[in-house]
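seq:
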Amino acid sequence: METGKTKNKKWIIIIAAIAAVVCIAVAAVILVTGNSTERKLAEQLDLAEGYLSELDYENAIAAYEAAIEIDPGCRDAYLELADIYIEQEEYEEAAIILEQGLVKTDSPAILKKLEDVEEIILSREDFAEEIILSKEDPAEESLLSEEEGSSEEISEIEPSVEADDGDVYIVDNIGVIDNEDSLNEVMQEFEDITGIYPCVMTVYDSDWNQDYDELWQYAYDLYINTFSDELHFLIVYSKPENAAELDFVNWAWEGIQGDETDPILTEHNVGIFNDALQTDLLRDNVSVGEAFENAFEKILQYL
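struct:
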């Protein structure tokens, strides 16, 4: 009987030892997996920050999205990704990201930024509605007619290139379009194919930021004061007047399209144009004019 007990004890000891080894192995796998996930997340965040420092927003966005896929609870990835969209004035995209982040993290910081973005979106909608109302009612005081020199300055803009039908394609007020002939050709082709009249205007920040908080407000009013129809596609590019003296130039651009362009300039097609333009404007070896030309050539491939 004692022998049998001794054998049972040995089996118990062996089984216990095996179980202990299995537990240690499982713990090791969990530990390694956890470290691997954290390492991958850190690598993506570092990668995103690197792209961001180079103003490569497209790749920075992709890196932050990859970080969120690795860890859906990464608060900083949602905040940084939203900041990129805010910088590009894509407030609806920023709101979507922040809403997703709030669901996953319940972060007060994300909630606060989401509230700020929603306030901006609301103010833009209110401003656009006031502009439309003032345009429909001649008796309504224009938001910009009282601004010093607003309408007069707009009407005095001289075109640098004019189409055969009298439409202005390029208004380069600050001398950054170095390829007017080829840009004019591709914009003419865009009009011939779509029936939409494209217009590129360049301005200095000082031309608008004394009277407007954001470039889109200036571009919107410029559109309704310059064109009498809803068939134009206006893109306004702006930079500081002393850009040559700056180490970092904080340029900006804004696109405005008329209601009648919607069937052709869909959200998808405009997105193609916007991505192409933004990507090229971030490249040091591509001029502003070339960036516009490439963007129009890109969108023509999808029309």
